[in-house]
Amino acid sequence: MAKKNALSHIYPKDRRCLSILAKSGAMSRDTFHKLEISDNRIKSYKQAGLIREVCVPDRHGTGIKTFFELTDKKGKNFCRQECGIKHFISNGNASVHNNKVSEYITNNLSKREMDCVMSERELKPFIESRLQEYLDKQEHEHYEELMDALKNNQLSMPDIVYKTELGTYEAIEVITDNYGNEEIENKTMTCELLSVEVTFVHT
């Protein structure tokens, strides 16, 4: 095991943390700390080749922000083998946005909810389950609306969907000043079709 992942031990918090990183795309040191990952453990991840540092200028151009992302090979392989993740967020030039996603997950979700997070890349089975559910409940109008939107590529997926402690599904979409009304309306419509509540979070 030590040779395969270059970590001598793998703990549940390692899996949870790196799984959130795979689903969000970027994470700050503070967010690692909130997930009970120490600076020494971050250093171990880097030495094992699982994560890399990414530096971006902050919005006001007065300094540099540092984030961590999974490495393409070892980091993603770890998540495939240890966390069962098949699809990864790859909008690499959106570190600030992606970090906000991981920050929101960490600050607002329980551990059980964190373990149920689906990224926008993982929502296909969820959409299929919703379609089946509408059929089973004979909600034909709802089924047709979702099916039409799917066929016509009109769905605009939120950043993440997760199952709450109450068993319902909620969505999170991180938005910036560049977001127009149309984009927000498209996200809202998609979430309505999927019967999920959406929360918009501003970076």
Question: What does this 3D model show about the protein?
Answer:
The protein has helices spanning 2-5, 12-24, 29-34, 39-47, 74-83, 95-108, 111-114, 124-136, 140-151, 181-193, and strands spanning 51-57, 64-70, 118-119, 160-163, 169-175, 197-202. By secondary structure, the chain is α+β, with helices and mostly antiparallel strands. Helix 2 (12-24) crosses helix 5, helix 2 (12-24) packs across helix 6 and helix 8 runs antiparallel to helix 9. 29% of the residues are buried.
In what order do the strands lie side by side in the largest sheet?
A: 3-4-5-6
CATH C-level category of the largest domain: Mainly Alpha
The CATH topology annotation of the largest domain reads as: Arc Repressor Mutant, subunit A
Percent of residues in helices comes to 40-55%
What is the residue-mean pLDDT, rounded to a whole number?
92
Structure annotation, total helices: 10
Order of helices and strands: HHHHEEHHHEHHEEHE
Overall structural domain count: 2
Termini separation comes to: 39 Å
Q: Report Rg.
A: 18 Å
The percent range for strand residues is 15-25%
Which outline best applies? globular
Helix- and strand-based class? alpha+beta
